[in-house]
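Regression check, zinc ion case 358:
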Amino acid sequence: MHSCISILNERGCFPISRSVFPTLISNDHLRSIIGGDLLSGRLGHAYILEGPYGSGKHTFARLVAASLSCERRTDDRFPLPCGECLSCRKIRDGFSPDVFMVGREEDRATLGVDAIRKLREDLWIAPNENAAKVYVIEDADTMTVQAQNAFLLSLEEPPPYAVFFLLTENAAALLETIRSRAPILRMQIFDTDALSEILKNDPRIETLARTQSEHFRKAVSAAGGSVGQAKRLLVPASEEAAAILSLRADAARIAALLFSANPSESVQILKNLPKDRAESVKLLELVLSALRDIAAIKKNASLAPLFYSDPDECRAVGDKIPLTRIVSAYDDVLTAREQILANTSVQTVFVGLLMNKH
Ligand SMILES: [Zn+2]
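Current build output:
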């Protein structure tokens, strides 16, 4: 059964016609159930999200977290979440202090009671920046029985601002006592035809499907109905455009320069800055992706990076750099991006960014 979270009620209900989760692919049942709960201020405190690897469980949990804390959540001229405000971007990029990922330690097969104890210690501390605190328990079915029982205590009487998402490939492996307190939501799985159509909405993949049809067909059939997994199999080969590759290489160099002074390299970057403002924004967004990888891999070395094709390169940049410095570099790049969007000269912004060492 749902227990009510009152965050949105206090601010009044949203009109039901508002667009919810605009970036969510298909999964109309989730849009309708959770979107409806959000809009009517009846979101429950806990949900089990079930689906295979790459089916979008993390993405969905982040979308709900962003909806609860979006700066435009009470402004129905925008979709929910808007995806553009600082709060939405921090949640999407994994930099929000109010969204917690709880996962297994590296090389451990189970999620033990220690991790749940840490969660419970944090739970009663009020949110830092946002209206809600969202806890995402990864591979929840790997929780030991002891961990599940410890978690049950939090699940039974959570603070009003807390929402839990238990991610799992197999909800049946969770204790019945947990399953009875959190509705099970299943991520949509696609057949190969539907999956092909969805993937072709990405222009890079559409090109690839035409130029390398055999590779495309094999990847789609190997993806097990999951969009995320298919993209993972396809995207490395689709990034053939030299311009994209060169922009990514520049982004990797800038990310490294944020943590170690190298004047001659900085000068070179400054000499070859993109002429175009939109291109500069794209470059900074790639730097943000790189920083997100560096922070994520620092927290969990077994994660696969999304920006870096070589995990060792990613690890090398973040090595010996404390997480707080990475977060502060991320904030500086966000500011630089805002400045470029607000028409500050590209040269001035990049000089400021590269000269402000972390
Ligand atoms: Zn927003």
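Comparison notes: Residues 70-72, 81-82, 84-85, 87-88 surround zinc ion (CB under 6 Å). The chain has 17 helices and five strands. No diff flagged against the previous build.
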